[in-house]
Write a structure and sequence with these properties.
Helix content is about 40%, strand content about 15%. Helix 3 crosses helix 7. The strands form 4 sheets. The protein has a 3-stranded antiparallel sheet. It has a two-stranded antiparallel ribbon with strand order 1-2. A two-stranded parallel ribbon has the order 3-4. The protein has one domain: 3-Layer(aba) Sandwich (D-Maltodextrin-Binding Protein, domain 2). The N terminus and C terminus are likely disordered. By secondary structure, it is of the alpha+beta class.
């Protein structure tokens, strides 16, 4: 009789034990769809500024993003001319930390910026000979060396239509050519040289009375505060201090608006 009861109880309890085990091992309900954790949902993502992927090439911060119809990103033609690299980083630093835009430095050959502009791949060329700006898709936005200079700033129609405050900023840029040459001459990828963004910070720190005339007072204050707090990049980053180095591209560092 006792043996019979044991068998009977085993038969009754076994399904219950199996149910409990299955419940304990079942995956926890996740309110996010697969691949959507820590991101916007699909509907919101369609209207959101694309997330950037970051990197560092030759000591220069780069950010590659999907074209933003709201012009959240300004694509700047960049090639291995130190004056160009310095001016790109001066203007880029002000756009990022003063006007809250993202900046994408687009690598082009020295003579390739016109083709890139015609294809709609860049929004800004900081130094372009005036003769080469005729008949292309970038408008004359002034000159970094003054209104009489042959070196012109080229701006895209998208930039003109969606960022008039930047167009006004570019039109007011007037930098001393000798000062640009002096600072840009320090740019080098060797051990004794400095990166373009560091060179830009040297210029901004040493010529505050110059560049603050290019922008509204509120923008100038934001840029000065960023310099004072040690911001030394064209990328705004939100980094988690643990779980990685926090360097561009690492799991612990993401680009932010």
């Amino acid at each position: 009789m006792r043996f019979y009861l044991r068998i009977h109880l085993s038969i009754v309890l076994l399904p219950l034990v199996l149910v409990l085990l299955l419940a304990a091992c079942a995956p926890e309900t996740d309110p996010f769809k697969v691949g959507e954790r820590a991101r916007l949902d699909e509907a919101a993502a369609a209207n959101a500024t694309p997330v950037a992927t970051t990197g560092n090439v030759g000591g220069v911060d780069r950010v590659a993003v999907t074209p933003d119809p709201g012009l959240g990103t300004v694509r700047v033609a960049d090639w291995r001319d130190n004056a160009v690299r310095l001016l790109n980083n001066i203007a880029g630093y002000i756009m990022v930390w003063g006007f809250d835009y993202k900046v994408d430095l687009i690598d082009v050959k020295e003579t390739g910026y016109r083709a890139a502009a015609d294809k709609g791949e860049v929004d800004l060329v900081m130094l372009a000979p005036k003769a080469e700006t005729q008949g292309w898709k970038l408008a004359d936005g002034g000159s970094a060396y003054g209104p009489s200079s042959d070196q012109r700033i080229g701006i895209s129609s998208q930039l003109q239509g969606k960022a008039p405050e930047l167009v006004e900023f570019f039109s007011k840029i007037v930098a001393d050519k000798d000062a640009i040459a002096s600072v840009s001459g320090q740019i080098s990828e060797g051990r004794t040289g400095i990166s373009p963004v560091v060179a830009a910070l040297i210029f901004l720190k040493g010529n505050e009375g110059v560049w603050t005339q290019w922008v509204p007072a509120a923008v100038a204050e934001k840029v000065k505060a960023s310099i004072a707090s040690g911001k030394a990049s064209l990328l705004k980053r939100a980094c988690i201090p643990s779980g990685g180095l926090g360097s561009p591209g690492s799991p612990s560092c993401i680009a932010s608006n």
